[in-house]
Amino acid sequence: MVEMPWWNTAEIKHAVSKVNIGQEEHFLMLQKVQHTQQVLLALAQSRDGANLKLLDSYRQQQKKDQISITRLEWLIKKQRAESDIGPESSVQREASRAFNPRAESQAHTILNQDRFFDWMQQGHPDIPLVDGGLPGSAQDGISPMSLLCANLSLTLRELEPDSIFAMFVCGLHTSPYNDDWYGPSGMLRFLVAQLLLALLERNSLDLGCLDRRSHVRVLERHDLEASSDLFGDLARQFDAETTIYVIIDGVSKFDVDFRNTFQKLEMAIRWLEDIVKDDGLRPKLKILMTVPFRSSIRLRQSVDDRFRLALPLQLSAPRTLSRGSILSSILSPSTLQSAATPSSLQNDLPEWGGEDYDDE
Fold this sequence. Notes:
Elements: H1 6-81, H2 90-98, H3 101-108, H4 114-121, E1 129-131, H5 144-159, E2 164-169, H6 183-201, H7 213-220, H8 224-235, E3 243-249, H9 261-277, E4 284-291, H10 297-301, E5 308-310, H11 323-331
C-alpha cells in the first residue's frame, strides 16, 4: 500500500506561497526602481530644458549686443568721416565725446604695459583690475575701454582659436527693471552661460555639479554665491592645456549702493579671485576687469594689490583702437618684454568692421 505524503504537499504549498510573496515584493521593488528612474529622467529632462533656455537667452543677448556693436561702430565711422562738418545729432555728439582720438590713445596704453603681457602670456591664472585713466563721466555706459576690450577679444580669438572666450560689458546691463543680466549676479550668470556653451560645443559638459535639487533652486533664484560656485565648477571642467579668457568691461558701473550692488560686486570679485588662486585649477583662467577712469577707493581695496594696474597718462601720438592696431601691438609690443606670439601668426589679419558697444 502506497502512502500519500500529505505533509509534503502542505510544505510545498507553504513554500510556493512564500515564493509568490517574494515575487510580489520583487515586483514592487522593480516598480519603485522604475518610478525612481522615471523621476530622475524627468529631472534630467527638466535640467536640460532649463539649460537650453539659458543658452537660448544667451544667444538672443549676443544678437542684441551685436546689433549695438555694429550700430555704434557705424556712428563712430560717420563721425570721423564728417569731422570737418561736426556732429549733427545728439547721438553723434555723444559718440564724438566718448571716442575722441586722445581717449582712444589713452585706452591703447594698456598695450604698452608689461603687466598686461603678464596677464596674456604667462601660463598661470590671473585677474588684474585696470584703471583706464580716461576723461569723461562715470555715467557713460560705454567708453574707449569697451572698444579696446571688444577688439582685444576678437583679436585673441584669431590668434588663439583653441582658447575659450567670455565677455561681459557692464555698461550694457545697468537697468534692474528690464534686463535679466543686471548687476553682479547677472554678470556671473552671463559668464556661466558662455562657459556652458563652450563645454557643450566640446561635448565635455558634466552637470554632476547640479545633482542636488536644493542647489538648482538657489541657482533659479539667481543666488550670487551659487552662480560663482557654478562658474568655478564649469571652469574646472576644462583641461590644463586650455586657456580661458574672461573680459569684464566697466565693473565700476556696479560700484553703486543701490540694492547693495557694490557689496555684491565686492563678493563676486573676491570669489573670482579665490578661483584664480586655487592651486588645483587646471586651465589657465585669465580674467581682465576694466574701469574706464580711476576706480573708487573702495573698489581698489576690494582687489588684491598684485592684481591692480593703473594706466599712465598717454602723451605720445594718438593711437586708434582698430583691430589692426591692437594686433600690431600684441605681435610687436613696445614694452620691456619681447613678443611671445609664434611667428607663424604674424601675418596681417583682415581689418575688422570696428564694432563697439553702446548702452541701449
